[in-house]
Design brief:
Blueprint lengths: L8 H6 L5 E3 L8 H9 L3 E4 L7 H14 L6 E6 L7 H12 L4 E6 L6 H6 L3 E6 L2 H10 L3 E5 L14 H7 L8 E4 L5 H10 L4 E3 L13 H9 L5 E4 L7 E4 L2 H11 L5 H8 L1 H10 L22 H21 L6
Parallel strand pairs: 1-2, 1-8, 2-3, 3-4, 4-5, 5-6, 6-7, 7-8
Antiparallel strand pairs: 9-10
Helix pairs in contact: 2-3, 3-4, 8-13, 10-11
């Protein structure tokens, strides 16, 4: 277990040893994984929609609390543009409050309408954003921190597809709340770069898919290890909803439909529905479905425990820090 090396506003906000936030991953972010992240010194978020019923979600929260020995952890809540789709979110939030969850990661649309209830419960909120305009809006709404996603991110990196280094150079000085950079993050060198840009940490997702505590099939993890930055593709742009996914026959078919100008979502549904993604994780057959994968797949080099991944990232960040320090010119 690596002791604390870096103290930033994000380590203080989450009361964690390392400035590493592990974002919620649909189907994968369960108690085993999130508990391992917390025990390794980072912060993780359970994804409630990954479980069959609200009570299954509640049971997972209780299990995570046992794994962390009562250390706080987080829950991911996706905010939809459709009010009817947020009915489940309200249920999940109620359960999180009842189970005394310490932190919430919101994603999607603005969490503004849910913030009074969240804050009244004493829960801290980090909101995922894809532009600095959205980040500033989230700060005004009252969130406690933001994660700024660059174009390299898996899942939904936004319409503008601005890279993480540009995002990181634009935003931190404009905000008064902690910022973590996300999208393509997976190394200690990037952690040091993010800190140098003025951010307070980084958010990891794809890099962590190969963790031993992630329940997906080892064949799927081995494919992630084989992949490079060119083995993902952006799809669903025709609907204004860019999604970075694994490059496979199904995502190639989606891209073909888009090139043909097909704008009927039903033509895409058999290729992109979420149950296909879960089946791929279960079977290891990465050729079916459109699984969210970011370009940080490039840094996933072996299957190992969460703690080993975290320790390697921090050790590399220390080497990067020392290298920069050694570059200073000698005085007169």
């Amino acid at each position: 277990m690596t002791p604390q090396v870096f103290s930033t506003p994000i380590t203080e906000l989450f009361d964690i040893r390392h400035p590493l936030v592990c974002g919620g991953m649909m189907w994968l972010a369960n108690a085993n994984y999130v508990g391992a992240v917390v025990n390794a010194g980072g912060m993780g978020f359970i994804t409630p929609r990954s479980f069959p019923t609200p009570e299954d979600f509640r049971a997972e929260l209780k299990r995570c609390r046992r794994i962390t020995d009562d250390k706080p952890f987080g829950v991911n809540l996706y905010v939809s543009a459709r009010p009817e789709a947020n009915a489940a979110l309200t249920t999940f939030l109620d359960i999180a409050i009842e189970e005394k969850v310490g932190f919430v990661e919101t994603a999607g649309y603005s969490p503004r309408e849910f913030l009074p209830k969240i804050k009244d419960a004493g829960i801290k909120v980090i909101h995922k954003c894809t532009t600095h305009r959205h980040a500033l809006s989230a700060e005004r709404a009252g969130v406690d921190a933001v994660a700024l996603l660059g174009a390299e991110a898996g899942g939904h990196p936004g319409a503008q597809l601005v890279g993480s280094m540009v995002q990181g150079a634009l935003l931190p000085g404009e905000l008064t709340i902690p910022v973590v950079l996300a999208g393509g993050m997976g190394t200690g060198r990037q952690l040091m770069a993010a800190l140098a840009l003025g951010a307070d940490g980084i958010l990891l997702a794809t890099r962590m898919i190969v963790a031993s505590e992630i329940w997906s099939h080892d064949d799927y993890k081995r494919r992630i290890i084989e992949m490079g930055p060119g083995d993902t593709r952006i799809i669903m742009s025709i609907f204004g909803d860019n999604s970075r996914v694994i490059d496979n026959p199904d995502s190639a078919r989606v891209a073909e439909l888009e090139r043909d100008g097909v704008d009927d979502y039903e033509a895409y549904r058999p290729l992109v529905e979420g149950t296909l993604q879960r089946k791929a994780y279960e079977s290891g057959d990465w050729r079916r479905g459109t699984m969210s994968v970011g370009q940080a797949c490039s840094f996933a080099d072996k299957i190992e425990p969460v703690e080993a991944i975290v320790d390697r990232i921090i050790a590399e960040a220390v080497r990067a820090r020392d290298r920069v320090a050694a570059l200073g010119a000698a005085g007169p």
